[in-house]
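A further point concerns the way the authors explain their paired sequence and structure data. An entry of this sort, consisting of the sequence and the corresponding backbone structure tokens, reads as follows:
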Amino acid sequence: MLVDPPPDWEPRIVEALPGVRILRVGHVSAACERVPTTWPLAIVVTEGQYAPDAARLADVASGVGAELVVAAAGEAVDVLVPRVAVAVFAAEERRSRKL
């Protein structure tokens, strides 16, 4: 799940994670509403968006076993994409062990 991503995030993440469904939401409140029904593997948000609702977003992410990836202000997409991939694989692994 991408929370109000910059334009260059989505195509690069889709390319790096073929077959993983990418959901885009406009803000943290929308993410918090959708997480319980969509069960994303990872939630990617910028630190500026995350800070005001950190506890709430962390709680809903934890509730479904999603990894939370908080991108630093100005973080290069080349740095972010591998972090997202690791988060997705970690969440998949954790969920598979719980089955």
About this structure: The beta strands are 2-3, 24-25, 42-46, 67-71. Residues 2-98 form one domain. The longest helix spans residues 77-98. The chain has one domain: 2-98.
